[in-house]
Amino acid sequence: MTQRQILLEGGTVLVDNDRFATLSLLISDGRIKALIPAGEGPEAAERVDASNRLIMPGLVNGHTHSHGALGRGGVPDDLPLEAFLSGAAWLNGARHQDDLHLSAQLSAVELIRKGCTACFDMFVELPGPTVGGIHSVAQAYHDVGMRAVVAPMIADQTIYQALPGLIDTFDPPLRDAVAALTLPAWQTIMASCADAFGSWPVPNDRVRPGIGPTIPLHCSVPFLQACAALSQQGGIPLQTHLAETRLQQVMAAQKFGTSLTEHLGRLGVLNSHFSGAHGVWLSKPEADLLAQHDACICHNPLSNLRLGSGIAPVRMLADAGVTMGVGTDASNTSDGQNMFEAMRLAATLSRAQTSDPAQWISTRAALKMATEGSARILGLDRVGKISAGWVADLVFLDAGYCHYTPLRAPLDQIVLAENGAALREVMIAGRYVLANDRILTLDENALVARARTIAERLDHANAETRLMNEAAALVVQSFCRGNCDGYATRLA
Ligand SMILES: [Zn+2]
Predict the structure, then answer these.
(1) Percent of the chain with pLDDT over 90
(2) Cα(9) to centroid of ligand 1, in Å?
(3) Distance from the alpha carbon of residue 279 to the mean position of ligand 1, in angstroms
């Protein structure tokens, strides 16, 4: 269907993620058709006054989990990653397909309200993915009007099976309870994914499939290889949590006799469709290996701080030639999905790693990571920049807001100060999805009411599992401390 042409008149436009200019943008069929001198443009187009707006490309979230939106507030503030995985697993239990749909909508609304127009969603469905579950999440993004890669987060080993020696540290009866937890066989998981991707329920120009083997330690070798084969055959992006914690590398050395990235390289998993989320504990040889395979890393600075995982070596990775994106991680572990905040941390955290400004992540580099870099992770072409022929995924900021008064260096002022407070409109694929503080594609009040009811039902249904998970997390926490005490030694 051909959309009517829209002429956004006289905005202060970030062109090519490089410079601001006063221009009009002609939008047609979901794309930026032309950048036109202010005051010109076709008479027939619908005209929108953008003279009090800073217009930038929508931010692209390279890593999140929509199931986290219904888990908000359920993660105590003293849990590192492994204790979170064991202690907060209950948050994802007893969910119906409708709950997956609702959580994806909640997540999408939060992202849009913070200036994000596309995301890589590793969502989980327990005990394993189903065609209906995957389709319900895809449908949610389609209905909200967001751009997304919908990637089932999958594993064939529980954390208790995955980490060498962990189960031996449990005493009965808790040991019996965690040992009894199992996941479906990888062949069953792959069959569900292949079926769901082969019968995709929505047009795939905006919402596409991806695949998310969750953590290499939790995936058997044939399973990882099957994921890589599916990714390569379909040109589908594959993402895994890579070296998020130091413990993951310690466990990889014990289990595989090598680093995590080397393990994936040997299995043939690394290629241009591959992205690793986090990459906090990657060594220089691993960075070189990723770069050789044209692979990407998604930096999730706030989640890494919240879970005490560390600060990723972004400069080292970028210098090695790894394409870097930025993500928020989920609303359970990151507490909010604010891509402005994640982009700002990408720039500012680098200043905590060295006093040499030449080694810092510049505001321009952080912006490119949070737009074009993340779009590359999503496998999207011509997304993440304002340029003729690129998609019309645009964010409109109030040029009169305090962040921009006075306005001297708009790119710096956006990256270093914006938190979403100046956001006024969001356009995705040429269609407004947020304006006048309202999401235009769904009834937010009804969504919030349903979310409250469902969370109450889930908390009740998962109450017993929660007690078991919380007891297990104490044992996992002590196992982690015993195997990996602090950050004293960075990997060679
Ligand atoms: Zn994650």
Answers:
(1) 94
(2) 39
(3) 11
